[in-house]
Amino acid sequence: MGIDDIYDSEAVPPKARGSIHKTILEWFENVERGTVLDAPAGFGHLGKKLRDMGFHVVCGEIEPEICKVAGLKVIYTDLNNKIDAPDDTFDYTCCVDGLEHMTNPYKAVEEFARVLKPYGYGIFSIPNYSTIEKRLKFFWNGFLTKPVSDEHYERDGKNLYNLHNSPLTITLLEFIFRINRLQIVEIKRNAIKWKQYFLFPLVLVMKLAAAFFSKKAKKKYRYDLTLNSKVILGGNNLIFITRKLPVN
After folding, report:
1. Quick one: what percent of the chain has pLDDT higher than 70?
2. Of 86, 89, 132, 205, whose CA is between 20 and 30 Å from 122?
3. For residue range 5-29, what is the model confidence (pLDDT) as tens digits?
4. In 3-state terms, the chain is what percent helix, strand and coil (to 5)?
5. How many folded domains does the chain comprise?
6. Residue 10 falls inside a structural domain
7. In terms of Cα–Cα distance, which of 56, 52, 78, 74 is closest to 65?
8. What gap in Å lies between CA 82 and CA 160, rounded to an integer?
């Protein structure tokens, strides 16, 4: 079975890549069962698989009617504003390809952190805008995500949540996590993008150049993130495993 083939038998494929779900589900196989918020839940593919693994799942979705999984609890959720749940409710939260659709990703992460229990885990997947390929495309084209045409906007019902509104790079994303006490404990990639390795000589030059910077400069420019091989040579998506730190 290929990494993207876990939904081949499904009549309706998920909104996210199957390889993202596969990577997340492999992580969940090795943790204690508990309560999970999956938002945005899309059609409910990930929520169903987590439920089948023994987790108690609540799905949040701005279009709750699109989730058709029998017996799966779905609540209306606008991540730009509020998650309808008390503080410290969930052991785990999942946000699969959601933050880039937000007009206010700061608020979305703040809400995920609020409803997560102390020491609970927040899992986020997001398009990898920090690969060497993306950096070169930005140099050439001047954009990280494709321009939106009027036809595209009309076709998506003029709903901003259907568009990529916030192409978050690695350092900005880490900052948003950090100010909400979400510590990155692991970065995963959904798949290896082999063609990027043709650009490895350029990456090597960048890493060698960074080696001559002072410790202060390396910390300032966060080369630990921007030159992380899983990031700069990563696939189309990154998966962040974060853990909520308690209030000091």
Report:
1. 95
2. 132
3. 666 666 666 777 888 999 999 999 9
4. 40, 20, 40
5. 1
6. no
7. 74
8. 17
Whether residue 102 is contained in a domain is answered as: yes
Confidence of residue 51 (pLDDT cuts 50, 70, 90): very high
- Write out the E strands in 3-111: 35-38, 56-61, 73-76, 90-96
Q: Which residues pair with 56 in a beta bridge?
A: 35
216 phi and psi, to 5 degrees?
A: -65, -45
pLDDT confidence bin for 2, thresholds 50/70/90 = very low
Q: Is residue 62 part of a domain?
A: yes
Task: Enter the tokens of residue 210.
Answer: 């960074």
Nearest to 101 by CA among 48, 61, 47, 133: 61
Q: Judge residue 124's burial from the number of C-beta atoms within 10 Å of its C-beta, 0-12 exposed, 13-18 middle, 19 or more buried.
A: buried
Sign of the torsion formed by the C-alpha atoms of 204, 209, 212 and 218 = negative
226 domain-assigned: no
